[in-house]
Amino acid sequence: MSIVVPAVLPSSREDFIEKLDFFAQIPSVSRIQIDVVDGHFAAPACWPYTAPEEFQAMVARGEMLPHLHNVEYEIDLMCVDAELAATGWLALGATRLTFHAESTTNVSLLLASARRRYGENSTISFGLALNIASDLTLIEQCIDHIQYVQFMGINRIGRQGQPFDERVFEKVRVFHARHPNIPMQVDGGISLESAKKLIGLGVSGLVIGSHILEAGNPVAALAAFERLSTPYGV
Questions:
Q1: Which are the contacts of 84, defined by CB distance < 8 A and separation ≥ 6?
Q2: Read out DSSP for 32-93?
Q3: Engineered SS bond to 162: which of 52, 126, 135, 154, CB 3.0-4.6 Å?
């Protein structure tokens, strides 16, 4: 599986489909993360929070996310109504749900409720995201109920193009030492230099948006990140 997980932060339905189509045509891309920002837990709000009726109509029509035959979709739920918001995305074919530990006052209760609601579907994976300033204890109480952890590599979530925060290195190092069998991914601000160090610390997923999309040659930029995970970078 590719170590790079392209991140899509949609401004509209058209922008959403365009970016999914672009990433899906790259052979190495097997998973895409869709950022869902409600404007409350994180800001500014993105689509579909800016056009909820449009999204609800898609779900009601039974539409499915494009390219499901070769792409797995992960929904990064940066919202206060994460459990409810997940319903529509699962109906569209998403199979991975990333809940943010800070979006609720009781992480364990949120996960338990989400598992009761969606857990009968064995194809769904549950993950927890942790902000850069939060303590590891916030997610360690839930390790037995998740399939992966996402460490935020930026201080302000919900926007692409934010600077990388090196505090994430120590978080990753400590967590991996304690829980070597839990897959880790890092989201936000990742450069080739920081990616190389994260991979060395045991990270198996690099969630990257602007560093790819804003490159002069996005396909080449993605390939450069992929080479970091191959022997001798070839």
A1: none
A2: EEEEEE-SSSSSS--TTTTSHHHHHHHHHTT---TTTTT-EEEEEEESTTHHHHHHHHHHTT
A3: 154
Q: Which of 4, 8, 37 is nearest to 20 (CA)?
A: 8
Q: What is the CATH number of the domain that holds 206?
A: 3.20.20.70
Query: Is 0.85 topped by the overall pTM?
Result: yes
Q: Burial of 218 by CB count in 10 Å (0-12 exposed, 13-18 middle, 19+ buried)?
A: middle
Which domain covers residue 16, as residue numbers? 4-233
Per DSSP, the three-state class of 125 is strand
Contacts of 99 (CB under 8 A, 6+ apart): 77, 82, 83, 107, 110, 111, 114, 126, 127, 128, 129
Q: Which amino acid is at 55?
A: F
Token pair belonging to 10: 């949609």
Quick check: 164 and 189 in contact, CB under 8 A?
yes
Q: What is the pLDDT of residues 153-211, one digit of tens each?
A: 999 999 999 999 999 999 999 999 999 999 999 999 999 999 999 999 999 999 999 99
